[in-house]
């Protein structure tokens, strides 16, 4: 256990280290239970540090075998070693070397941090503080070292040996062992260090960079699975080309390797030249992966690759600056996917994720700024706020200063900070310089937590032909920030006439900003538009130009004008969502089906007739109702999840029944015999077809079940098979159980596919589900040791089954509490992540709130908790 558990680390306490490590030469002798690491560190005093200070190196569960200073064995009184620390009392004044030998047991490493075993392979995960579990080091991102790594292993056990940088030598080491030496010329913090050793297959190719250098690119996977890595390899090459084209960034080593492992705490990791991935985000074949899986693989491959510049070449000064690399890199991967696929659909999908994850986090006890000011456990800050809201902040910056100044700012940033560990202030200064703008107020997005609400009220003066729009903003208090200041909010807007024509904006309305963008930077503002020939419908926050909630007093008919005619596809989609949200909220209030609203069904019917053929992916987004969690957030307090579920169901049934004929027809039209390809166009058609099936089955369950069963059995790809199973999973009865059984049988032995099967069952909104989940935990394919299994079964139950996790009797909460406590002993990071399912407990109605609090307290009061779980339970209760 790390002894600093409970200690608060604060941004204001940052100071440089007293020593620097210019070079690190590692010799790692892999062995299952006793791996030896010989580290020769070349140190010198940091001119920015305190002179003649003791040297304190970080460790975590380490055993020191030997220590030498300048190649002379260290006298016992010269140092102090514990599993967590190595202190050299009086280091030499001149540059010196430390030679440290440690021994670790990768097989016993169930935390999956540091060096561990996944299947039969050895791999590492060092971000954020895992390198200290390999050797003693200055384990922080502002210490940049050039690494040379020799890896030695049994040739039989680990014929493939990979490290950071370029391969420089390999050979026989005697006694059935062999070695490889890797050298990474780019100074990097140790969190980017990685090695892999194992019996792995690969797919490889060559990428020629824009300056003509040849790079060997390869994806390594478990033996026999190379075929399933070809899509990832292709996505990698497309990412490399895109970063050259769009940001002018070229790759810098001779090789780029990706390795897929089955035991991984997160999605993937951007280690220099050696990305390590959760195999869920690499392996794909039409039979086993859905279109969504392919899109995720493409996005995550791109994300990790883009880190080579935003994260690796320029890293973070400290972990408070995490969003400097993560927010920016998410923005970059979102733009990549938007360019590779449909921009509008990608934006809608990203905003759905932002609202589901980040808005939820931002309105509860775990809310924190994009750049937090303090933490107890940094692993708990790889959050939707740092990643997703961090990306929104970059997007707003681009909206505010325009594409050209944004690109100039990026160029300046790369130029000025290459090879350094930077801060948000340094980053923003590049854009202030490139645009000539003062970004002082804008920078508050990094400091102030909470989701602002923007309220808009419009008034049209028919006589004067003017339209006045009154805007106000307010941000609710968040933990540690009771008072909020107005944010600087870019509001992309337009005015739409009743017949759909865009009304020209009088230039004065948005003067001083980018065209069509009004910047709300105070508590309120009034915009006056002149020469407005008719009563307009305002289209605000186009493209979701800021991460805020928008309240606007539009009538249903006005929303439908936007749905039909808005030139901004995001707001077209948004207005349909708003209409549906209102219908569901009315049903929650009434407890009965809302008065059937013909207008909405008519509008959808018209929309499908006009747009389904030309833009099926977009149409699928329109047909997908707001989720139960969306509705719960909209209600905001005293939420009864059962009432939300019933109301949403009622509306879905009503729409499904009203449109049954059209949905069936469209479903039929979209049923092609073309062979499966995971491209955006095909994915769009499948998404729409499956959205039709889902709505149709809600309206006409008996017919829907038959159709779904036929699709389930006849599908030639996982997208269609799994979508049909999803529809069946919501229809209680024997067909569902039969289909679930057939699916399990067909994919026996394929862990990643069975994860989908676990997840689907965990999300069934019925009281028997908790028992089903408990039963599935005893399934031979389930294991508490594998993060993907845990997330699929238990994570889906807790995070994506609103009614059953929030059972009124509290059994869902108790189950999660028990599971988190049990898992904590094995893998604190994954346990802490699971516990964030309680992040919205305060908005529940009082009886459930009391049950949730009881379960959270039980976790918090458990002796011997990891810092990870102690931090989340403590903050959740505060
Ligand atoms: N930097 C990675 C995310 C990551 C963070 C921590 C990890 O520890 C287990 C692993 C991965 C990314 O943004 O993809
Ligand atoms: Zn990242």
From TrEMBL:
Residues 557-877 form the Peptidase M1 alanyl aminopeptidase C-terminal domain. Keywords: Aminopeptidase, Hydrolase, Metal-binding, Metalloprotease, Protease, Zinc. It is an enzyme of class 3 (hydrolase). Residues 450-552 form the Peptidase M1 alanyl aminopeptidase Ig-like fold domain. CDD domains: M1_APN (cd09600). Pfam families: DUF3458, DUF3458_C, Peptidase_M1, Peptidase_M1_N. One of its GO terms (biological process) is proteolysis. Aminopeptidase N is involved in the degradation of intracellular peptides generated by protein breakdown during normal growth as well as in response to nutrient starvation. This is Aminopeptidase N. The lineage of its organism: Bacteria, Pseudomonadati, Pseudomonadota, Alphaproteobacteria, Hyphomicrobiales.
């Amino acid at each position: 256990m790390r002894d600093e558990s409970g200690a608060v680390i604060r941004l204001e306490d940052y100071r440089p280290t007293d020593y620097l490590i210019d070079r690190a030469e590692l010799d790692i002798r892999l062995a299952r239970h006793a791996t030896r690491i010989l580290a020769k560190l070349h140190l010198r005093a940091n001119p920015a540090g305190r002179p003649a200070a003791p040297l304190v190196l970080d460790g975590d569960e380490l055993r020191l075998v030997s220590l030498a200073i300048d190649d002379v064995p260290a006298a016992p009184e010269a140092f102090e070693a514990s599993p967590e620390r190595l202190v050299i009392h009086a280091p030499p004044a001149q540059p010196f070397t430390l030679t440290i030998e440690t021994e670790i047991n990768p097989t016993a490493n169930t935390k999956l941090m540091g060096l561990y075993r996944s299947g039969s392979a050895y791999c590492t995960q060092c971000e954020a503080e895992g390198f200290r579990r390999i050797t003693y080091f200055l384990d922080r991102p502002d210490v940049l070292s050039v690494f040379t790594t020799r890896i030695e292993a049994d040739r039989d056990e680990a014929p493939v040996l990979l490290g950071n940088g370029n391969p420089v030598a390999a050979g026989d080491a005697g006694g059935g062992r062999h070695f490889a030496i890797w050298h990474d010329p780019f100074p990097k913090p140790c969190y980017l260090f990685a090695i892999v050793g194992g019996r792995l297959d690969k797919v490889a190719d060559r990428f020629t960079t824009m300056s003509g250098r040849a790079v060997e690119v390869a994806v390594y996977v478990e033996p026999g699975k190379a075929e399933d890595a070809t899509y990832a390899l292709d996505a990698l090459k497309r990412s490399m080309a895109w970063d050259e084209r769009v940001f002018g960034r070229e790759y810098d080593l001779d090789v780029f390797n990706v390795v897929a492992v089955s035991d991984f705490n997160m999605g993937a990791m951007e280690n220099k030249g050696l990305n390590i991935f959760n195999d869920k985000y690499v392996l794909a074949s039409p039979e086993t992966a859905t279109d969504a899986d392919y899109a995720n693989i493409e996005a995550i491959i791109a994300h990790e690759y883009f880190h080579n510049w935003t994260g690796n070449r320029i890293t973070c000064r400290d972990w408070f600056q995490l969003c400097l690399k993560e927010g920016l890199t998410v923005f970059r991967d979102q733009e990549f996917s938007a360019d590779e696929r449909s921009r509008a659909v990608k934006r809608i999908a990203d905003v759905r994720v932002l609202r589901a994850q980040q808005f939820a986090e931002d309105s509860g006890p775990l809310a924190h700024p994009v750049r937090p000011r303090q933490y107890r456990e940094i692993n708990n800050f790889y959050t939707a706020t740092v990643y997703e809201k961090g990306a929104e902040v970059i997007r707003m910056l681009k909206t505010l200063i325009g594409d050209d100044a944004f690109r100039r700012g990026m160029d300046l940033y790369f130029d000025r900070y290459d090879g350094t560990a930077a801060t948000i202030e340094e980053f923003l200064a590049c854009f202030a310089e490139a645009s000539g703008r003062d970004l002082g107020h804008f920078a508050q997005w990094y400091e102030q937590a909470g989701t602002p609400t923007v309220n808009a009220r419009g008034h049209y003066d028919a006589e004067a032909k003017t339209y006045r729009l009154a805007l106000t903003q307010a941000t609710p208090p968040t933990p540690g920030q009771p008072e909020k200041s107005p944010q600087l909010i870019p509001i992309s807007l337009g005015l739409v006439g009743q017949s759909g024509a865009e009304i020209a904006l009088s230039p004065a309305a948005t003067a001083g900003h980018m065209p069509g963008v009004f910047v709300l930077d105070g508590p309120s503002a009034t915009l006056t538009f002149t020469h407005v020939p008719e009563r307009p419908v305002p289209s605000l926050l186009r493209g979701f130009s800021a991460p805020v909630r928008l309240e606007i007093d539009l009538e249903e008919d006005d929303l439908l004008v936007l749905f039909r005619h808005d030139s901004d596809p995001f707001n077209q989609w948004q207005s349909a969502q708003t209409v549906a949200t209102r219908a569901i909220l009315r049903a929650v209030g009434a407890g009965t089906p809302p008065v059937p609203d013909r207008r909405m069904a008519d509008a959808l019917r018209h929309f499908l007739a006009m747009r389904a053929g030309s833009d099926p992916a977009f149409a699928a987004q329109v047909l997908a109702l707001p989720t139960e969690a969306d509705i719960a957030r909209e209600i905001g307090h005293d939420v009864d999840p059962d009432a939300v579920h019933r109301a949403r169901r009622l509306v879905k049934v009503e729409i499904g029944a009203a449109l049954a004929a059209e949905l069936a027809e469209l479903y039929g039209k979209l049923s092609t015999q073309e062979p499966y390809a995971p491209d955006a166009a095909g994915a769009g058609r499948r998404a729409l077809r499956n959205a039709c099936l889902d709505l149709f089955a809600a309206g006409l369950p008996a017919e829907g079940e038959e159709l779904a069963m036929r699709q389930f059995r006849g599908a030639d790809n996982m997208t269609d098979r799994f979508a049909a199973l999803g529809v069946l999973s919501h229809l209680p009865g024997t067909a569902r159980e039969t289909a679930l059984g057939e699916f399990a049988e067909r994919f026996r032995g394929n862990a990643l596919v069975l994860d989908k099967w676990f997840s689907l069952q965990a999300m069934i909104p019925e009281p028997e589900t908790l028992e089903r989940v408990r039963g599935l935990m005893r399934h031979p394919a389930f294991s508490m040791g594998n993060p993907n299994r845990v997330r699929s079964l238990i994570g889906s139950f807790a995070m994506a089954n609103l009614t059953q996790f929030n059972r009124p009797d509290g059994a869902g909460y108790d189950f999660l509490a028990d599971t988190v406590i049990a898992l904590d002993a094995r893998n604190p990071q994954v346990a802490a992540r699971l516990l964030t399912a309680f992040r919205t407990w305060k908005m529940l109605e009082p009886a459930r709130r009391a049950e949730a609090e009881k379960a959270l307290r039980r976790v918090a009061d458990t002796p011997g908790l990891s810092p990870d779980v102690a931090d989340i339970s403590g903050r959740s209760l505060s």
